[in-house]
Design brief:
Elements: E1 2-7, E2 11-19, E3 25-34, E4 40-46, E5 49-54, E6 59-63, E7 68-73, E8 80-86, E9 96-101, E10 106-111, E11 114-120, E12 127-132, E13 138-143, E14 147-152, E15 157-163, E16 170-173, E17 179-184, E18 187-192, E19 198-203, E20 210-215, E21 220-225, E22 230-234, E23 239-244, E24 252-257, E25 272-277, E26 281-286, E27 299-302, E28 307-313, H1 330-339
Antiparallel strand pairs: 1-2, 1-28, 2-3, 4-5, 5-6, 6-7, 8-9, 9-10, 10-11, 12-13, 13-14, 14-15, 16-17, 17-18, 18-19, 20-21, 21-22, 22-23, 24-25, 25-26, 26-27
């Protein structure tokens, strides 16, 4: 497993999570260097690929196993605000990279090789966040224009837009794609994906702003922010399942679920969640312990920089795409443009 983090100081940080003295783990540095010309605003990982976007309008690409730099993409003309890879459920290999920027644009890239397929502008102001549906056919975006937009990624166009009346800072699909979560300051709305109907609203008990969210298994949503804690919400009941109080000494800027249930998982395996704070500290937790008492972190690294974002990826296996694998291809977008 690996973690990648970006900072205000232009630095990109890469770590590999390795076993240490049971039950502890150790975060081994993979790389650390100033990859951007200005602050890094967003990072994403999938399989052995990682990407970072910054306020220098560029996207940089990395190979995690070899800790090498792959190149950069210069298709945006404003600061990057969000990055997200899409991969088929049975693959660790990314098929597409979707990015959003401060000028309201969203770009769709093929990941093999990394080439721009289509750029669209679903918002009049900056895009705050985007989330790709597990099917890879659509995505949701929220922006500073106080709108929620749905994007058809196959056709490369906006298919729906509604005004919220308030600015949402984040949007995330759950793991199954049946629901999505929308963050508005200290509140999180749980919505039905089919019709965007509000099912319930999660409110931070301390009325502090939520700055990062990560969906987990069985309808659990992990959040962090100005309260410096990691809160696990049961989104089916709308109540707090458990909480790691004072997980950091400063506000959280990123939370990542590292463990996903699969056929090889054991009930005794730890359920790992990583978190990063604005004071530069990255910690890895076994959140099962939080149900009983406040756990101690299994691993910790101090970058001594002002971290802005965090992403994680499992490096257990890499399945290359087979002949039947499906992605958003340039031919599909060209054919749609000719027919419209």
């Amino acid at each position: 497993m690996s973690l990648i983090a970006g900072s205000y100081e232009k630095y990109i940080w890469g770590f590999k999570l390795k076993p240490h003295e049971t039950p502890h783990l150790i975060l081994t540095p993979l790389f650390s260097y100033p990859s951007h010309q200005s602050s890094i605003t967003t990072v994403a990982t999938c399989g052995h690929y990682a990407a970072s976007g910054g306020s220098d309008d560029t996207i940089h690409l990395y190979d995690l196993p070899s800790a090498s730099y792959l190149g950069s993409l210069h298709d945006h003309s404003s600061s990057l605000t969000s990055l997200s890879f899409f991969s088929s459920p049975n693959l660790s290999f990314p098929r597409n990279l979707i990015s959003s920027a401060a000028d309201g644009s969203v770009s769709i890239f093929d990941a093999d090789p990394f080439v721009l397929l289509k750029s669209i502008r679903p918002h009049r102001k900056a895009v705050n966040d985007l989330s790709i549906h597990p099917s890879g056919k659509l995505a949701l975006t929220v922006g500073r224009d106080e709108c929620l937009a749905m994007l058809n990624l196959v056709r490369g166009r906006r298919s729906f837009c509604c005004r919220l009346g308030r600015e949402a800072s984040m949007v995330k699909f759950d793991l199954g794609g049946d629901r999505f979560f929308m963050v508005l300051e200290d509140k999180i709305g749980v919505h039905e994906a089919e019709d965007a109907r509000l099912l319930c609203e999660l409110e931070n008990p301390k009325q502090k702003r939520v700055l990062c969210v990560a969906p987990g298994e069985n309808g659990v949503l992990y959040t962090g922010g100005e309260d410096r804690s990691i809160t696990a919400w049961d989104t089916k009941s709308g109540k707090v399942a458990y909480c790691i109080e004072d997980a950091h000494s400063s506000r959280l800027k990123g939370v990542v679920v590292l463990t996903r249930n699969d056929d090889t998982a054991s009930v005794d395996d730890p359920y790992l969640v990583a978190s990063a704070s604005s004071d530069g500290v990255i910690r890895v937790w076994d959140v099962r312990m939080a149900i009983k008492e406040k756990p101690n972190p299994l691993a910790e690294a101090n970058t001594k920089s002002r971290l802005t974002c965090l992403a994680g990826s499992s490096l257990k296996s890499f399945k290359q795409p087979g002949p039947g694998s499906k992605s958003i291809q340039k031919e599909e977008l060209d054919a749609d443009m000719e027919g419209s």
